[in-house]
Write a structure and sequence with these properties.
Layout: H1 2-27, H2 36-45, H3 61-71, H4 83-94, H5 105-114, H6 121-137, H7 140-150, E1 152-154, E2 157-158, H8 160-168, H9 177-185, H10 200-217
Antiparallel strand pairs: 1-2
Helix pairs in contact: 1-6, 3-9, 3-10, 5-6, 5-7, 9-10
Length: 225
Amino acid sequence: MRRRLLGGLVILFSLTVTLPVLAIAAYRYLPVPATPLMVIRAVEDGAWPARDWVALDEVPREVLGAIVAAEDNNFCTHHGVDWGAVRDAYEEWEAGGSLRGASTVSMQVARNLFLWNGGGAIRKGMEVYLTAMVEALLPKRRILEIYVNIAEWGPGVFGIEAAARHHFGVSARQLTPRQAAALVAILPAPRVWSPNQPTERAAARIGIVTARMPAGLSRLACLET
């Protein structure tokens, strides 16, 4: 009985480790069909989320620059975890500030592809492992392409194409720089904030993202490879 139990645990562990790796390898070439959060939202909302996959070349550079500026300044240079951002966040908290997240785009992709919402040491450990696999198996360009296609941008709205059509009535390729900044600005609270009817707090963040966008655009060199 003990041997069977041990064997079962070994098989379970092997599947837990290897299946995500196989999926990530497949996602290098194939669109992501669904994520755990999409399934959760479908159950909560009673309908499958609106979503259309688009190639990165169909996404305005301003959207990509805004994402890098707002979500991950060192996207092109880190290897999944931005330890400098983690250190800065810890030092701010230690000095009496609020504890802010330091998740990179790669970490968000890993989390959204396979994990559930919430915290906990086990989930965080799995996130770090999956992030390492994402960075090892996918080029930066593909990581960002997956990100813009699986990110939540409103109730039942996933991906930049659905977001552009839902909030502004245009395709992703037709987004203006201001609209791009507004969409990226609501990513921290997409089911609460609106890019075209922003609250005072959301409007302030839109202004910040708009101002930082040129710096983000200058950090996109890794997308050319």
